[in-house]
């Protein structure tokens, strides 16, 4: 048991080191020797757990996806209003932009899209998050539309993909995301009119 626990701890250190290096300098500029040095795990030991650099990178990105999914699930558990949840999603992209440069972020996004395993892993996590979000908001009586959840998810996914591909645009135009929030909340109806409809 102690041996397995140590192996798991070493694996976690390697993955954490890989995540830190990827955020700082990107995937292409990160090599296994750098990961081994930062993690404090020997190069030889690391290769006993991971077949190659691709395996380490894949594990690191999966871990990062798990981290974000966990954060969002904790946020949903607070039963926040829809407006608050939508505002929570905006800082995700700003935080990602702060943690790594636009070039690195774009490299990660492209890498995930081109790796079938990672792409499927990300899509599964994404669908899980949106389904939980929509179910909770419907239960709370906030979302009343007859539109199917899968149709809404398709639209939300498209917005996420746009946001991921146009980081600089979103940074320059702070009102763009707020406009999306308004459309999500009230469609193409003016907010005051939508509020009046709720009262009637």
UniProtKB/TrEMBL annotation:
Domain of life the protein comes from: Bacteria
Keyword tags: DNA-binding, Transcription, Transcription regulation
A single MF term (Gene Ontology): transcription cis-regulatory region binding
Domain named HTH tetR-type: residues: 8-68
InterPro entries: Homeodomain-like_sf, HTH-type_TetR-like_transc_reg, HTH_TetR
DNA-binding keyword on record: yes
DNA-binding region: 31-50
Any matching Pfam family: TetR_N
PANTHER family: HTH-TYPE TRANSCRIPTIONAL REGULATOR BETI (PTHR30055:SF234), HTH-TYPE TRANSCRIPTIONAL REGULATOR RUTR (PTHR30055)
Protein name: TetR family transcriptional regulator
Source species: Lactobacillus corticis
């Amino acid at each position: 048991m102690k041996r397995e626990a140590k192996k798991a701890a070493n694996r976690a250190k390697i993955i954490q080191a890989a995540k830190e290096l990827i955020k700082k300098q990107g995937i292409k500029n990160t090599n296994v020797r750098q990961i081994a040095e930062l993690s404090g795990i020997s190069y030889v030991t690391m290769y006993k757990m991971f077949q190659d650099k691709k395996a380490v990178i894949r594990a690191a990105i999966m871990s990062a996806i798990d981290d974000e999914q966990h954060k969002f699930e904790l946020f949903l558990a607070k039963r926040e209003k829809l407006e608050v949840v939508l505002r929570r999603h905006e800082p995700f992209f700003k935080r990602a932009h702060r943690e790594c440069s636009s070039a690195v972020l774009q490299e990660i996004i492209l890498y995930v899209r081109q790796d079938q395993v990672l792409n499927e892993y990300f899509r599964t996590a994404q669908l899980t998050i949106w389904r939980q979000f929509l179910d909770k908001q419907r239960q709370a009586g906030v979302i009343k539309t007859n539109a199917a959840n899968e149709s809404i998810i398709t639209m939300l996914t498209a917005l996420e993909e746009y946001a991921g591909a146009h980081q600089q645009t979103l940074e320059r135009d702070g009102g763009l995301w707020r406009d999306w929030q308004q459309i999500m909340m009230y469609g193409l109806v003016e907010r005051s009119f939508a509020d009046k409809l709720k009262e009637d």
